[in-house]
Write a structure and sequence with these properties.
28% of the residues lie in helices and 12% in strands. The chain has five helices and seven strands, in the order H-H-E-E-H-E-E-E-E-H-E-H. The strands form two sheets. A four-stranded parallel beta sheet has the order 4-7-5-6. Strands 1-2-3 form a three-stranded mixed beta sheet, with no helix packed on it.
Length: 206
């Protein structure tokens, strides 16, 4: 009964759509470039690692550089009287209200949308949130938080925006290092921090 529309904000993706329209196309139907439930790629090299063995010689990966935001997009349910955010992302309720004049909030739904399972976005390593890492465990936290002795620092973002942008690359780095456990100290607050907490909660449930 519903359809999801993804609107890119990248010159390469927009040019692809423009040329496709010139050729008579109405839009591109495509999933995300990752295996179901796995960590989302945020660079072309990560897409190759994730899907390379499944691609044919004629398949192409368009390299537009690293993702600007990092975590997945906001999903908004527009079938209700007021827009409902059912997957948090960079776009916040305040942004929706500023754009549309309509009040928006976060809401849970049974509607089938990407990323609404309790377990998702998970690396091979076990993800643990908000505890001190032990010797040999991976560690992701804002740069202001020191690395405990023996922990393996995977990312030290300065801001919440950097945290979101670097999170998945850091989780993939932990898998590349064959770590068993990755401990994450998540940023606090609303907006993007809430979206990061959503992704980490699902990764930790896997």
């Amino acid at each position: 009964d519903t359809v999801g529309l993804r609107i890119p904000n990248h010159p390469l993706a927009l040019e692809l759509l423009r040329i496709f329209k010139v050729l008579g196309g109405k839009g591109v139907a495509a999933p995300s470039a990752n295996r179901f439930g796995a960590v989302s790629p945020t660079a072309a090299s990560a897409v190759q690692e994730e899907l390379g063995e499944y691609l044919s010689a004629d398949d192409l990966i368009l390299d537009g550089g690293s993702s600007e935001v990092g975590i997945e997009s906001t999903i908004i349910n527009c079938t209700t009287d007021s827009p409902e955010i059912i997957r948090p992302g960079f776009i916040t309720p305040q942004m929706v209200e500023e754009s549309t004049g309509l009040k928006s909030n976060y809401a849970k739904t049974d509607m089938k949308v990407s990323g609404n399972l309790e377990s998702h976005y998970a690396p091979k390593a076990k993800v643990i949130i908000d505890r001190d890492p032990q010797h040999g465990e991976g560690f992701i936290a804002l740069s202001e938080i020191p690395t405990p002795e023996g922990a393996i620092r995977l990312s030290s973002p300065v801001t919440t925006e950097e945290f979101a942008r670097d999170l998945y690359a850091a989780l993939r780095l932990g898998d590349l290092k064959e770590l068993k456990t990755i401990v994450v100290t998540a940023p606090t607050g609303g907006g993007l921090a809430e979206a990061i907490s959503d992704r980490l909660g699902k990764a930790a449930n896997s």
